[in-house]
Amino acid sequence: MQRRHLIKLAAASGGAALAGPALAACTTAGSGSSDGELVLWSHNAGSPLEIAVTEDIIKAFNGSQDAVKAALEPFPQDVYNDSVNAAALSGDLPDLLTVDGPNVPNWAWAGHLQPLDLPEEITGKFLPSTLGIFQDQLYAVGHWEAACSVFARQSVLETAGVRIPTIESPWTREEFDDALEAVTGKAGYEYAIDFSTADTGEWYPYAFSPFLQSFGGDLIDRSSYLKSDGVLNGPEALAWGQWFQGLFTAKLANPDSPGGAEDFMQGKAAMAFHGNWGALPAIDLYDDMLFLPPPDFGNGPKIGGGSWQWAVTATADKAGANSWLETALSDEYVAEYANQTGLIPATDAAAELTEHYGTDGKLRMMVDYSKAYATLRPETPAYTVIASVFGQYTGDIIHGGDVQTALDAAVAEIDADIDANSGYGF
Amino acid sequence: MNAATAARRGWTYVPMTVLAAFFLFPIVFMVAASLKTDHQIFADMNSLKAFLPVGDLSLANYAAVFDRVPFWRFLGNTLFVTFMVTAFGLIVNSMCGYALARMRWKGRGLVFGLIIATLILPFDTTIVPMVYLVANLPWVGFDGLTPVLEFGWLNTYRVQIIPFIVNAFSIFLFAQYFTSLPKGLEEAAAIDGAGWLRTYWRIIVPLSKPVFATVAILTVVTSPATWNAYLWPLMTVQSEELRPVMVGVQYFFQLDTAWGEVMAYITMITVPMVIVFLVFQRAFIQSIASAGMKD
């Protein structure tokens, strides 16, 4: 009897163990190699329209040849980098993956990516900020770009007596400061501008470091990429930090504003600094929307550049992966992504195929801002640390911390990380 | 009821009502917000309207959940993994606890001490080496009917189940409970010719239903592999087909978060646990009271 029970238990345990592979056999594996399959990972799980375009590309690619078959595995964006890093640790990266533009240098330096092998006639037509370049080699290409602008209502600016800026004549710092005072004073808004400060993470360096650069500072010394001392805590950076903090201490901006420019959408803030992905909902809400160029703080207006791009992993089927990219990077698909996501198409020809970004489109100015003002986040593997540190200490500045102390602390952390990594290859 | 009794009850019930409301507010907010547009949610945020189903109400967020997330697939995965981890955990951990509590063998104290010592290590500190380990573990798969030795457990159900079957805290609870059972029962069984396994199955298990219920509930509620599984499947499961419900929450955080849909989704994944709680309310309370709180 005792032996029979033991056999029963063993059988039950073995059955459970075997159930695993039987069930898993129904699923797709995810590892790059020249095995006739191209595994693609993307960051957009939960965005069915965007995924549908990628699936269309895959269908066209799979139908055009018999050598390899592509398949997509989408991941949620907020946890995508963690998933990729875990896969890199376990040697289970796919053939192609999407990568946020500023992370391209880090992943290339870490050995996750291989340079692209695409003809110049394909990549040459893409906006420079949609190309992921590290140490003069092209590692990634993006279908779209994003651009920030000052969201405002014509009626509000007219009530406040504020000049409406143009790309040829953006606001100066003085004009911008006066405009902020006017929209709260004359137009009676609770806040002058909404910075979506609750949207911590990449939003902070993406949206706010261009102001720093327009003041004359930067996140890192781009002549060497070896230190941030002197540029992130110098006089220009200090001036930026004091100005930015002053907006919050003067209650012109809400230090705890929700993400998605919700204070602006709720009518609490007169203006917002927001991305073009929020433009169409704003137009739906207000019939007199303006998307204005960012102010010039002395070194020209600046906005962040570089969005999600496609890259080929180091272990990928190189020929198959580049072949897929050649299909994917056609103007037709660049335009289709823009139509489905509202983001800026990466080529001029695709822009003309879209509803909003063509020459007469109502969001055409976003293309112009991107071309004129886009500043790439530093193209160094150190950027992942720079972004995290800058976000942390900008938060301190917003909430009233001493500006010079915060900037010095940020510099110390960034420079220590660069030293610890022997300059990240620079 | 005289005035003194009424006052005494008031002193008891008023704080209890306030505390109950305090804990219920997030759930009430979640359900109310799940019926509103994002614009309405933020418009109501600074007033009591945030907790009330008022304004522009619809079930659109619930419908949108199904467009964004393969809800039933995720729910099925979570139910399957939770069931497997819990069921096998009860068998393996109770047998382990029994061996440690009632069998006399050399090194028993040391082994028990080592098992308990693993409780000191938080899961977060071991997760990276564990990922590396499971990525290289062998497995016998099948190519048709031919067994094939494979390496790597990533992207499977087994990676979500097997590493979490053995649980030191469960073993501790079983061992403690088994120690309290009268020794005479086993001695009587031995006289009747029962071996260790038969004694365990026929004598010990039927007498230990409370600890089995406690361990089952704690496994479902607190294990990093069951209902609240998030970090582990995030790092070890790449296929959407195998993801659990908690990872699905992240599907709603795109460029701009769809807050109404988030609230609808978490309402939907909270409902099964609320049903389980209501059905097993008494056992839940007893299990928490007897085991204490543990993350």
UniProtKB/TrEMBL annotation, chain A:
InterPro entries: SBP (IPR006059), TAT_signal (IPR006311). Keywords: Signal, Transport. GO terms for molecular function: maltose binding. It holds the Pfam family SBP_bac_8. It comes from the Bacteria. The keyword Signal applies. Belongs to the bacterial solute-binding protein 1 family. This is Extracellular solute-binding protein. One of its GO terms (biological process) is maltose transport. GO terms for cellular component: ATP-binding cassette (ABC) transporter complex, substrate-binding subunit-containing. It comes from Glycomyces luteolus. Residues 1-24 form the signal peptide.
TrEMBL record, chain B:
CDD domains: TM_PBP2. It comes from the Bacteria. GO terms for cellular component: plasma membrane. GO terms for biological process: transmembrane transport. Coiled coil: none annotated. Residues 75-280 form the ABC transmembrane type-1 domain. It is a multi-pass membrane protein. Its main location: membrane. Signal peptide: none annotated. Pfam families: BPD_transp_1. It is found in: Cell membrane. The chain crosses the membrane at residues 12-35, 78-100, 112-135, 155-175, 211-232, 262-280. Belongs to the binding-protein-dependent transport system permease family. This is Carbohydrate ABC transporter permease. It comes from Glycomyces luteolus. The lineage of its organism: Bacteria, Bacillati, Actinomycetota, Actinomycetes, Glycomycetales.
